[in-house]
Amino acid sequence: MNKKDISEIKKQFTPDNCSITRICGCYVDSEKEKKTEIKDAFLSLPEEEMFKYFEIFRKTLSGTIGKNLLNMEFPLEAEAPGQPQHFLLSLRDSRLTDEELLDTFYDRVIEAYDCEDHYLILLIHAAYDIPGKASDGLEMFDASDEVYEYVLCCICPVKLSKPGLAYDDRENCFRNRIRDRIVELPEVGFLFPAFSDRSTDLHSLLYYTKKPEELHDGLVDSLLGCNPPLTANAQKETFHTLLENTLGEDCDFEVVKTIHEKLNELAEAKKDDPEPLSLDKAEFKALIAQSGAPSDCLTDFDARYDACTGADEPLMVSNVTNTRKFEVKTPDIVISVNPERADLVETRVIDGRTCLVIPVDDRVEVNGLPVRTETCRRSDA
After folding, report:
1. Cα–Cα 20 to 30 A to 195, which of 82, 207, 327, 359?
2. Cα separations in angstroms, 136 against 86, 129, 144, 313
3. DSSP conformation letters of 163-219
4. Which domain of life is it from (predicted)?
């Protein structure tokens, strides 16, 4: 799913566009015991509750694709009868009315989800009548060809509110506040099946995690039957390892600066593209070659790439580099430069020492205080 696909589904989480038919849930305590369950027709809920749920659902489809939102495909074996994709499909097709399926789903989540606190498993079923689109992009609500049926699962922490004093209207005084258990925004969730190119994709799902480094592999592997992808940090480490191992002694300042500049150029060129910018093996190899690295450095690149990623898996540009910052760091100095002006920083050998050289004009501040430079002194003279 890309940005446009996700945005289209998020727009359904409003009273005017709501296509949710049913909401179910299971409250689990710290001992992994089911405390209570909910089963309701969503549109029968009080309006105040609906808005709270909409906030949770929208959050489950929020974040950066490749970091918080991960597109996952089911391996072929996961689609066999009795396997995760087949089970999720049965759950969706039941429209959450089969209590036995629901109980099995809750049990599988509780078994796979590693959490020592209380949490709420929320599950909704929705049927979105996809409007057709004219050639100018305008939606034609009377020209639908498909209904996208899906389930959205959100796993939300349930925390005790903070202790304190509260005003009692009836008694006109302040009393110790009763601590309630509050449902917080989700830590993890998923949308099944995926909504790709404005159509149902039964072979994929969209996975959400609040913390990119905590994928909750048990959920991904056991409950969903998917192979956990590389996390954002793992992709960044892979990128650095590949560069270091590929360039070796040729991993100098100018080559790395050029790579950063070219990544910035790619990001700028693709900023309006709904698809997240990524580099596959061939594109990464070409990037290094175009950045001034010697050709013999790339002799074993393909094998190194496969060894580092585990497969020919693309790396998200947003994960491997910060296109909004160019930073040069030594043990004692950190220099941050506008990424569009990384060309201002260069290396020179001065008096036998390798130095970073940054040209400055008459606008220089030290700890916020404007200071005069040698250029100013010369112009005054």
Report:
1. 82
2. 38, 20, 16, 35
3. P-EEEETTTTEEEEPPPPEEEPSPSEEEEESEEETTEEETTEEEEEESSTT---HHI
4. Bacteria
Picking from 320, 328, 225, the residue whose alpha carbon sits closest to that of residue 277 is 320
Q: One-letter amino acid identity for 38?
A: I
- Could you give the angle at which helices 99-112 and 84-93 cross, rounded to 10 degrees? 140
Record the tokens describing residue 65, joined without a space. Answer: 């694709």
Which tens digits make up the pLDDT trace of 77-110?
A: 999 999 999 999 999 999 999 999 999 999 999 9
Question: In this structure, are residues 16 and 50 in contact, taking their beta carbons and an 8 Å threshold?
Answer: no
Q: How far is CA 316 from the centre of its chain?
A: 11
Of 101, 122, 120, 99, the C-alpha closest to 30 is 120
Q: Give residue-wise pLDDT tens across range 167-200.
A: 888 888 888 878 788 999 999 999 999 999 999 9
pLDDT of the residue at 340: 77
Give strand pairing partners of 123: 24, 153
pTM: 0.83
Q: Which of 362, 130, 354, 141 is nearest to 253 (CA)?
A: 354
The string of pLDDT tens digits covering residues 113-131 is 998 899 999 999 999 999 8
Query: Alpha-carbon distance 220 to 72, whole Å?
Result: 9
Q: DSSP letter at 211?
A: S
The residue with greater pLDDT, 58 or 116, is 58
Report the distance separating Cα 97 and Cα 40, nearest Å: 10
Q: Measure the CA–CA gap between 3 and 346, rounded to whole angstroms.
A: 38
* SS3 of residue 319 by DSSP: helix
CA 191-193-194 angle, 5° bins = 75
The answer to whether 279 and 314 are in contact (CB under 8 A) is yes
By CB atoms closer than 10 A (0-12, 13-18, 19+), residue 17 is exposed
| Complete DSSP assignment for 69-83 | EEEEE--GGGGSTTS
